[in-house]
Amino acid sequence: MDTAEIRRRFIAHFEQNTSVGAHTAVPSASLLLDDPNLLFVNAGMVPFKPYLLGQATPPFPRATSVQKCIRTPDIEEVGKTTRHGTFFEMCGNFSFGDYFKQGAIELAWELVTKSQADGGFGLDESVLYPSVLIGDEEAVALWKRITGLPDDRIVRLPPKENYWSMGVPGPGGPCSEILIDRGPEYGAERDWDAGDRYLEFWNLVFMQDELSAVRSKSDFDIAGQLPSKNIDTGMGLERVAYLLQGKNNMYETDVMFPVIEHTEALTGKKYGADHGDDVRFRVVADHVRSSMMLISDGVTPGNEGRGYVLRRLLRRAVRNVRLLGYEDPALPELFPVSRDRMGATYTELHSDWERISRVALAEEEAFRKTLQSGTQIFDLAAGDLKRSGENRLSGDQAFKLHDTYGFPIDLTLEMAAEAGLSVDEPGFRSLMAEQRERAKADARAKKGQHADLSVYRGILDTHGPTDWLAYETLETESSPVALLREGRSVDSLGYDEIGELILDRTPFYAESGGQSPDAGIIEFEGGRLEVLDVQRPVKGLVVHQVRVVDGEFTPAAAHGHQLHAQVDPEWRIGARQAHSGTHVVHAALREVLGPTALQSGSFNRPGYLRLDFGWTTALTPGQLRELEEISNRALREDLPVSWQYMTLPQAKDWGAIALFGETYDQSKVRVVEIGGPWSRELCGGTHVEHASQIGTVVVTGESSVGSGSRRIEAFTGVEGFAYLARERDVVDQLTGLLKTQPDDLVGRVSDLVERLRAAEKEVERARTAQLLAAAGRIAEQAVDVEGVAVVAHRASGAAGGDVRTLATDVRGRFQGDRPAVVVVIGDGGGKVSLVTATNEAARARGLSANALLRELGPVLGGKGGGKDDMAQGGGSEVGRIDEALGLVPGLVGRG
Ligand code: SER
């Protein structure tokens, strides 16, 4: 049975169920949901978390989905065993306070054991073993009654196996898994946790608890019961696929294996012939698919967070193909194979293909360059080590290769091993840890927020969500709900102290969707707070970071709506201009570059905006001008701006652009339009009412932000005009300076540059001529040392190339049989430049320029190197140049 059919049967089974009731089929959410605890969606239940936790009312009592997931804690382990991959699809059925254990067990058992002819998976009952959490005798009794299996076929396991949580605070509960016995060749009988014999393929979670802390799979704190008992199940699509296809593991299914086959064709290697190669084949198959799905959901390669995971996946895929022996660009070969297997379900892989493949290819190209330059650096470091008789690459060097050249440590380790060197890995790891700590400290300092969200959740639970009025008003009378300082509840804030204030209602816009938080003040009787930042650390709760700028703030002493919250109106106008400006620039950009140019991130604050988008080449000046022109035309035409709510499918039908990384509520999204269909985006930001209110859009620059991603920056409103005024000032000053008109400015400046260049060339020519003229004179000053003409000359003010030219030229004056040794030492730039040279006759007498240099170098506090005919070096001891020159005749005599 192919994977598509398994998927179809799963959904149909739940959608058409009549015993507990029909389930609503929900399409897979993006891999990127806005959960501060999760890098990626890692289980089928993640999109339903607010319903499971009782934070939002579910629009349906039952649901079913096949959710794309990514788990990346152990990328290095991928392929070494066949059990795990980074990307997988989870089939699930969910009950939100509807059916519980009995319904879940009945539904799962029916689908698994029903014959294939009747639409089930037709697995043989005699090899199936349900597991339950030790102590959950209710589940044991249900399994026995529903399946008719004897007691010893129901396996009781400890919490490590059969208590499920997200690994972070959130919902959890005891679970029950269905295991399949794959036979004695996979391990010992009834050995539940070792080996691959008893494979778990479906996990039924009886979700009833809310966890406040999770330290490990068996060590967690249950804060209380969830408002309702829920069901969350997850059936691994890949696992069921290989079981039903009679294969050994997930890499051999109809979806994954074609990538391995294509890799075989490229590399000429065979899967199944060598363990090391097999691991590489599997890494390639897994990483190609995961990275394609991530790019499709809007991640671009970068150096942190999601972008970094993507970069690692892509680079590991490329490198493993290389290790298998294929050196040409591999992703253009392999991505289409994976797309063709996944594209029927995820149609955006086809419609967005141009962008997806461009991002992947750009990263591959960048990595190929990295490999090239990093390899050179590595070779140099390895050479130095060997020369100095050492064989251990320092942690510092490995770190530099990683940090500066993007060289993964495993690559360094491997190349070091090939070169017969070891690597100070602990040293490297500790430098990495230091860097991470620094980054974390930076992030903490920037946000002033607490990683532990439970405090905010507690406030939300007790007081309910903030009444958020940012769309309606700029000021409200509000009551304080909670006051925090460094994560703890406090009664007061003294003058100049900073804390976090939660109000029952607020007009302040919390940072989101790229729009920066509102600025403003909150007045209380006897004083004032300045609002420094506004965030929404948990959904529904607006938190103001405030500083007391007047008086002392003691909220409990007052009562009623005693606070006056006031957004700075100027700030908000600027913010609205900038945010609408961002939409305008985005729409204009898509007009210039075509619809594949898609925003991947944005930021705007009053007067300024920037927009990042997936694109591999720099925009030409013409394209930038066009972008600015189209943007300002939208302003001149005064396009109307409006917003309305609709369901997500409606919004998509409308062609609204959903931005990556945002969580959208399927049933209600906000669509902001500028000029009807011209710009339609899902957006929760604040906007102007019609485009001319933006004032102006001045595009100031375009740059690269990592491979495959470009950034546009622009000023809006008053800032835009101020920017132009500054430019006009510069032009004024230049015209004044050059005594010319603005229109002639470019001509005048290029004229000047031209003349400057010519003058520099002339100076250079004169200097060389002077040097060469001196050469004859210097040669004449040669002294004779045992028949060798010895020149030891100090070239005042000369350095580097000049010293070398001079030495070469002086040596050239001694032709024929007369041996000559020339030493020229320059002192230009406050440093020693030393060149030694010998002619052929001198070398015939055994005199070596390099040997001479080695004698002189230490005197001059430096070193250098070369050959017998010419050697060059530098040093710091300018004061000892004459002494060094004095040594030359003696050294020649001795030689
Ligand atoms: N959430 C559970 C899991 O991920 C069941 O869906 O295994």
Structural descriptors:
single chain; 895 residues; alpha+beta; BirA Bifunctional Protein, domain 2; Elongation Factor Tu (Ef-tu), domain 3; 5 domains; 8-stranded antiparallel β-sheet; 34 strands; 40% helix; 25% strand; globular; binds serine
Write up what this structure looks like.
- It is built from 25 helices and 34 strands.
- The strands form 7 sheets. Strands 1, 2, 3, 4, 5, 6, 7, 8 and 9 form a 9-stranded mixed beta sheet that branches. Strands 13-21-18-19-20-16-14-15 form an 8-stranded antiparallel beta sheet.
- Mean pLDDT is 90; it is low at 444-451.
- Strand 14 and strand 15 form a beta hairpin.
- Helix content is 40%, strand content 25%.
- The chain has 5 domains: 3-247, Bira Bifunctional Protein, Domain 2 (BirA Bifunctional Protein, domain 2, 2-Layer Sandwich); 257-356, no CATH class; 454-567, Elongation Factor Tu (Ef-tu), domain 3; 572-726, Threonyl-tRNA Synthetase, Chain A, domain 2; 774-894, Diaminopimelate Epimerase, Chain A, domain 1, CATH 3.10.310.40.
- The protein is an alpha+beta fold.
- Serine binds next to strand 8 and strand 9.
The N- to C-terminal Cα distance equals 86 Å
Question: What is the top-level CATH class of the largest domain?
Answer: Alpha Beta
Would you identify the regions where 5 or more consecutive residues have pLDDT less than 50?
A: 444-451
Strand share of the residues?
Answer: 15-25%
